[in-house]
Structure formats: C-alpha cells, structure tokens
Amino acid sequence: xxxxxxxxxxxxxxTLALKIAExxxxxxxxxxxxxxxxxxxxxxxxxxxxxxxxxxxETILAxxxxxxxxxxKYAVFIENLDKVGVEAIKRALKDADxxxxxxxxxxxxxxxxxxxxxxxxxxxxxxxLATLHRNWVNKFEDKGMIYTLTVENRDKLFKEILNNxxxxxxxx
Length: 172
Description:
The chain is α/β, with parallel strands linked by helices. The chain has a single domain (2-37, 79-169), classed as Rossmann fold. Helix content is 37%, strand content 31%. It has helices spanning 13-26, 78-95, 112-123, 137-140, 154-169, and strands at 2-6, 31-41, 44-52, 58-64, 70-71, 74-76, 98-104, 128-132, 145-148. A nine-stranded mixed sheet has the order 5-6-4-3-2-7-8-1-9, with helices on both faces. The longest helix is centred in the middle third of the chain and has 18 residues, at 78-95. It is globular.
C-alpha cells in the first residue's frame, strides 16, 4: 500500500505524517524513513531539516542563501539528503514495517540517489506513507492513494489513513 498526502503549504502534511508515524510506533510497529521540519528564525522560514524516524538523526536539507543547487530562495544540500535521508529510507526498506518519506518534491528530487531509492520503495511491497508536493501529484497519481489535506479534513484523514495502514500491515 502506498499513501500520499498532498495539500497547500502550511496545511499540516508533515504534522499528519508524524502523528501517524508516532501512533504506529505506539502500537509496536517499526517505522522508518524521515520527516522534514521547517527551520524558523524571527518567525520566518529560513530552511528545512531532515529528522530520521529510527535514529532521530538531524541534518540541514536546505537553507536560504547561495549554493551549488538552488530551489527558489533555498540552497539545497544534496549530500546531507543522501547521507541521512536516503540512508534512512534504505534502512527502512530492510527493517521497518512502514516507510515514511516527507516529502516528495523538487528539492528532494534534485538528488539522483533520492530518486533511485524512491523508485525502489515504489517497486517494493513495503507500505509507504509519503507527503507529496502539490506540483508532483501527476507523477504519483497512479502509484497509490492520494489524499488532499485541508484544515477541515485533518482529523478525518488521520483516522482514515491510520486505519488503511493498519489494515494493510495487519494486527501486530
């Protein structure tokens, strides 16, 4: 089963994915992969960091400024994504009950290794919960179930997605 959560910026895609991951961990499932959190300075978003779900390792994915690889105003640190994010996904492919990837978007797909490991996950039988940047929906619409998160449906989607995952990975 592959579940993708999309929606407008700031609607809570990462929060929902993390809430589901934490509930699954509480139920005894092994959750792997990573989430991406905003880095804020003086109330403004200045970057993003990756946090792995198995080891809590953190690294900077992107930060406002100049860099070799740019997406909008952000310099993207592909080497950090490859070293921490891609490796977390690889570990999850081997060891986890479910893989969480936050997010599938332009910054992340600047990495060849990330693209390759996502292809590997999509081809595997391993359950996947991923947040999906709205501009990438067309690329993944035939790869699984896509949920569009809104402020109004947050609670409903939490229960619905969690139940779908639990039915798929079975009563542990």
